[in-house]
Write the structure tokens for this entry.
Amino acid sequence: MTTHYLNGVYCGKIATRYGIQTAIDKHGVEQSLYLSLHGLAEDESADPKHHGGPERALHQYPLEHYAYWQQQYPSINWQIPGMGENISSIGMTEHNVYLGDRYQWGDAIIEVSQPRSPCYKLNKRWGNANISLDMQQSGHCGWLYRVIQPGTVSVSQPLILQQRLANALSVAKTSQLFFTDPLNPEHLALLKQQTTLSVSWMSKIMLRIETQQVENWHFRLHGPDAI
């Protein structure tokens, strides 16, 4: 069994920050928390349509990626958990985490459901209009989980890999296929085979196949103020 120890667990409350309503500013939690089907007990989401919910209950982000962001944008004082992550880790990246991976975490069981889809709130958070697009293009997105079995969890309890599907795509490969050459029929066919991919992503894939059009990314990446 593969065991991964955590660097931090984070929760946030909705507040007006950076000119928006957001819970992106999260604080470290040392005590045990209940993880329900919708997320950690002390964590909130300002936009439940696009964040949180059963298939986006948790966001994990690799600690290693902050070195990339510091190199790309040296004038910004990057700090964890600056991407709004619930879980911070070392040694787990988009390249060695796969769709459908199931982990025992304390009393809970969680399953990788999709890569994170970067949105404009990251631009607001860091005061730079390029962050969300850079994240999407670089693949430094992190990933989301659905909760298979609710239970009590804590930062002191590791993620223990319980299951990996034979035909699963890595999170990195999934992002590449989804965001790069997004109407490529081979890419879409591979993504369609991923039975554990979130309903949200799978519905977009099916619509692309049907219409031969890509959904509009402009609002998600740039926000309502962008032209």
Q: What stands out?
A: The first strand starts at residue 3 and ends at 4. Helices lie at 65-72, 121-126, 131-138, 171-179, 185-192, 199-211, 218-222.
